[in-house]
Amino acid sequence: ATEAEEKDLVIIGGGVAGYVAAIKAGQAGLKVACIEKRGALGGTCLNVGCIPSKSLLNNSHLYHTILHDTKNRGIEVGDVKLNLEQMMKAKETSVSGLTKGIEFLFKKNNVEYIRGTGAFADEHTVAVNLIDGGETSVRGKNIIIATGSEATPFPGLSIDEKRVVTSTGAIALKEVPKKMVVIGGGIIGLEMGSVWSRLGAEVTVVEFLGQIGGPGMDAEISKMTQKILQKQGMKFKLNTKVTKGDDSGDTIKISVEAAKGGKEETLDADVVLVAIGRRPYTAGLGVENIGIETDERGRLVIDQEYRTKLPHIRVIGDCTFGPMLAHKAEEEAVAAVEFITKNYGHVNYNAIPSVMYTHPEVAWVGQTEAEVKNSGVKYNVGSFPFSANSRAKTNLDTDGIVKFIADAETDRILGIHIVGPNAGEMIAEGTLALEYGASSEDVARTSHAHPTLA
Ligand code: FAD
Ligand code: NAI
């Protein structure tokens, strides 16, 4: 065999974590290669996650607004039709533009893009099974694992991405289902449930816990969000578990019962979306052969500098600890490369915002009220409804509130939670406030343009 070429840094995975690390390392002058098996850069986020889902959320919201919310605004429209094929094309245009943009950035920053599946041959060598046929291998002084995550399957239901789908199938349905059952009322369930509900499906969300929104959403905000989504037509079955699914007939039968035991009920569905969380993806990587550990949830174990037991191998993004968010992956990519090039790097995990892109959006940063209460800190809560905000009033879009939680003694902000129009943009200010250690008075005394939602 020929000697493998040696790089300063080899990155396995070309998702947000991997491509950001690759570009940063290229800019820092490192000799870097990034291995991606999908055939396109950008990972889950650009190809089948953040970007396509936001395209569908935006356009389905427009459609729904035009269909149901124009008359009272003085706009008469007739003959509104859904062209789902075109809506999907618009989505694909956004996706392909962005993934090609990354290829361009790779070239510009001297990143070698290796199209194939990587696996550890030894501690410094990654063997690559090339997409276009054949094999190669590449040696790294440093290696970053950024292989991301995959949907957690639901036992007993086999995913075909047509009738029983994960988010990947849910962003690509060929027609609007009459009835859709969503298993899991977290972010994916509510975002994709919203899309298909707006386009005409009857959507029922089955959630095991007593609240929707997934981990991290403040209970009061979650309750309010549920009411708003119900008003839009989505149905919810909380504290409910799916016991079995049968997809042998024309309609899929989903059996559910109260989580604490109770009467069974059967729900019919044309499409079932499985959205019960995501799990780290490390299949075929061969980490076990070189002694890298995973925890009980399959996450690659690292220290505070993203190092595995083998200090030249680091891990970032969805396949290790922390929230599975694109901007978290991105921050870690920057920090990990800085650890390699400068010996220091930093991510403030207390100030990573979360946004759910339903309408209205739900956004938060910092701790929930329950978390603050459990920590034993004395705190104050202040909240304000959009129904009393002048811009929301002019926009006839007044559902939601802003909630601040601050330390009762120091007034330092501990958490900000918003459900309301444009919450996802507004939370940037809250994140900045948290990052700078602001008090709630600091924010109150900052001039905000009138009339704005901010
Ligand atoms: P990934 O993006 O999953 O990238 C990993 C890449 O590694 C993949 O492309 C994979 O093909 C490749 N790979 C894996 N193994 C190998 C191997 N052995 N060799 C070569 N390549 C390999 N986050 C947000 O912040 N905002 C959102 O709005 C948002 N929306 C989402 C919507 C959906 C439907 C989903 C599913 C996720 C969403 N997320 C969102 C989460 C976000 O997509 C992830 O947090 C992000 O993609 C994580 O980046 P990553 O680089 O760690 O992993
Ligand atoms: P999630 O963790 O947000 O929600 C899963 C939900 O399913 C939880 O509420 C959980 O209680 C419930 N659940 C689990 N098992 C169940 C069962 N057997 N029956 C019924 N309910 C069950 O996970 P989700 O929605 O799959 O998303 C995965 C990840 O993707 C998110 O954690 C998030 O990090 C990321 N994502 C982020 C988005 C954003 O930032 N806007 C959008 C979409 C995904």
TrEMBL record:
Its EC number is 1.8.1.4. Signal peptide: none annotated. It comes from the Eukaryota. Belongs to the class-I pyridine nucleotide-disulfide oxidoreductase family. The active site is a redox-active disulfide bond. PANTHER family: DIHYDROLIPOYL DEHYDROGENASE, MITOCHONDRIAL (PTHR22912:SF151), DISULFIDE OXIDOREDUCTASE (PTHR22912). This is Dihydrolipoyl dehydrogenase. It comes from Coniosporium apollinis (strain CBS 100218).
